[in-house]
Amino acid sequence: MPKAATKALSEEATQKLEAQIPAQASLATRMAYEKAKAAGRTVVLSKGGFIVTEWCSSAIDALERLATHP
Fold this sequence. Notes:
Layout: H1 11-19, H2 21-38, E1 43-47, E2 50-54, E3 60-65
Antiparallel strand pairs: 1-2, 2-3
């Protein structure tokens, strides 16, 4: 099998790709949330300083208050 040519990205190209990571991660998280809710699943997330459970019925239960940092 022939070897694929490997070419390193420039520093600028690497920085541009790395700058996209937060937005891509946020989009993937939102899509997973929407998919779970559409499938009627329960999700656990952070909301208003609490860890909460969102049930498929749209009811919300607070599980635990998040710690605050001074």
